[in-house]
Design goal:
The complex is a heterodimer of chains A (161) and B (355).
Chain A (H helix, E strand, L loop, with lengths): L1 H20 L11 H31 L2 E6 L2 E7 L7 E6 L4 E7 L2 E7 L5 H4 L9 E4 L4 E6 L12 E3 L1
Antiparallel strand pairs in A: 1-2, 1-7, 3-4, 4-5, 6-7
Chain B lengths: L6 H30 L6 E8 L2 E8 L3 H19 L7 H6 L7 E2 L2 H16 L9 H6 L12 H13 L2 E3 L4 E4 L11 H13 L6 E6 L2 E6 L4 E6 L7 E7 L6 E7 L4 E4 L2 E4 L14 E8 L2 H14 L1 H11 L2 E6 L3 E5 L6 E3 L4 E5 L1
Parallel strand pairs in B: 15-17
Antiparallel strand pairs in B: 1-2, 2-6, 3-5, 4-5, 6-7, 7-10, 8-9, 9-16, 10-13, 11-12, 13-14, 14-15
Helix pairs in contact in B: 2-7, 7-8, 8-9
Classes of the chains: A alpha+beta (161), B alpha+beta (355).
Chain lengths: 161, 355
């Protein structure tokens, strides 16, 4: 019996301290729909901000030069040049032979090709948008192209060779 | 912020702030959209391997896709008329013809053949469509270039010297025994002209044709920039040409031996043949570029100027009123004075104008 009494006593005590200790928020505070919208608004705002920063980064990436490798018209590789922080070698097997392309963050170069004329290897390093090396016997094209979202006008419309 | 005790006022204030936040959210969304999307022009590019080279066609405008389809058809079609390396083309049938068995050529092929032949006469054989036996002997047609034996050169040379074409009425023609015609020095320029002519019928604002480095461009009320490759460093440029008034198509065509060449015993042999000696041309030029409105002429002319060497090329160009850029082997660009103010040198090349 005294046990139950004690229990009820403590509970009423706690209620008292809670109501007297904290003046705010008063008892008449209710979580209104306006508060809800406010909170959702803040959360959404933050979400959009984060998404915005993320998308901005993506868009910036799409503006940097891309490297593209085509083999007989098929796109084998199309990615931002700056993704190649480590030197990467690509071995391209074609119907006619083999072409080796080396890509690093600043350049792409056909290092070897088993074609007789070696015109593609003689092209040397490709560093700027608009440059390309073509291996006709193997039908392989390595090009530096503007990113898909690049807004700068392509400086040169064509190159006479 | 002071807490508002009055529930009514609080509600008003909250709803006002909510409105502000929603507005901010939409604003940020709008800015995001604006930065992510921009005005897109209907620009399309076609790339293909044709004519023993790599072709890139870029067009802008409403009919871009239809125009590219037509361009691809036309290039294949014309290649099948003008190639001497493919089997059963009008030109390869011509090479197998004789006085008793003349061939009837398509009007395109007949026209170009006649123009090439006239140009040969005009240049006193510096440009020569009979060059094919030499190209074969040196292995440039098969893609396995090498120095042939003296006998091989002599026999090829005699086939060139004795060669000839007889033009007959109604697009008929035959060749003298042994003759093998190669229109490689004119065909790409000619095909550029024809493709440009066909694409102009579409609703486009810009046409850029790159037929293995032969450039033909047109733009509606716009300037265009065309680079000329640095013959000493083929991934760079030696000059950039500013083409204004591109409302009429311009072609920029370069010839040189910096790309198609081979080395044997330390000597460099280029792919442009001298039909008088049977050896690759010896010239003090690294490349010759011709700028003009006629691509077929530009193609033949650039080869000719390159083969002539600087002095002769300069006097020939000024005599014929040809706009050209000649790269010599000393880092100087010799440029027709009519191009003054339209061209900038790159990569440390010096400019000298001539009249």
């Amino acid at each position: 019996m005294p046990k139950t009494d004690g229990k009820s006593n403590t509970s009423t005590k706690e209620e008292k301290t809670a109501s007297s200790g904290k003046a705010l928020p008063p008892r008449n505070f209710r979580f209104s729909s306006g508060d809800l919208i406010l909170i959702i608004g803040i959360v959404l705002f933050c979400a959009f901000l984060i998404a915005g920063i993320f998308i901005y980064g993506k868009v910036q990436e799409k503006k940097t030069p891309y490297v593209r490798i085509l083999s007989d018209g098929q796109v084998l590789l199309y990615s931002p040049l700056r993704d190649f922080q480590d030197e990467t070698e690509y071995f391209i097997e074609t119907n006619n032979g083999k072409v080796v392309v080396l890509i690093s963050s600043e350049r792409a170069v056909i290092v070897s090709s088993d074609c007789p004329d070696q015109i593609c290897v003689k092209q040397g390093e490709l560093t700027h948008v608009g440059q390309g090396a073509i291996c006709l016997p193997n039908k392989v094209v390595v090009e530096i192209v503007p990113g898909p979202e690049s807004d700068e006008e392509q400086e040169i419309d064509g190159v006479a060779r | 912020m002071e807490y508002i005790r009055d529930p009514l006022r609080r509600k008003q204030c909250v709803s006002r702030m909510t409105g502000l936040f929603i507005f901010l959210v939409f604003l940020s969304f709008l800015i995001l959209n604006l930065s992510a999307c921009k005005k897109k022009t209907n620009k399309k590019t076609l790339q293909l391997f044709a004519m023993d080279t790599y072709v890139t066609i870029t067009v802008e405008g409403k009919d871009a896709q239809e125009a590219l389809d037509e361009a691809a058809r036309l290039i294949t079609n014309l290649e099948n008329q003008l190639s001497s390396r493919k089997e059963n083309t009008p030109i390869s049938r011509l090479n197998a013809s004789s006085e008793n068995a003349p061939v009837t050529l398509p009007a395109n092929a007949y026209d170009l053949l006649e123009r090439a032949w006239r140009f040969k006469e005009e240049t006193e054989g510096v440009f020569d469509p009979r060059v094919a036996p030499l190209m074969d002997a040196w292995g440039f047609s098969s893609g396995d270039p090498h120095v042939p034996s003296k006998e091989e050169i002599d026999s090829a040379l005699s086939r060139v010297e004795e060669g000839g074409i007889c033009f007959m009425a109604s697009c008929q023609a035959y060749v003298l025994p042994g003759t093998k015609i190669d229109l490689g020095g004119a065909a790409k320029g000619y095909i550029g002209d024809e493709v440009m002519k066909a694409l102009r019928k579409y609703s486009l604002s810009r046409i850029i044709l790159d037929l293995g480095g032969n450039i033909t461009v047109w733009a509606e009320n716009d300037d265009l920039k065309v680079g000329i490759v640095d013959p000493g460093l083929p991934s760079g440029l030696c000059a950039v040409l500013q083409l204004s008034e591109c409302d009429t198509p311009h072609s920029v065509i370069t010839s040189g031996a910096y790309e198609r060449f081979f080395e044997e015993d330390g000597i460099r042999y280029g792919h442009i043949m001298d039909t008088r000696t049977g050896y690759p041309v010896i010239t003090d030029l690294m490349s010759a570029t011709v700028i003009g409105k006629d691509g077929a002429l530009g193609d033949m002319m650039s080869t000719t100027l390159f083969a002539m060497g600087r002095e002769k090329a300069m006097s020939w160009a000024s005599q014929k009123g040809i706009d050209c850029v000649l790269c010599d082997d000393n880092g100087t660009l010799w440029i027709s004075s009519s191009l003054k103010g339209k061209i900038d040198a790159e990569n440390g090349w010096k400019i000298k104008y001539f009249d």
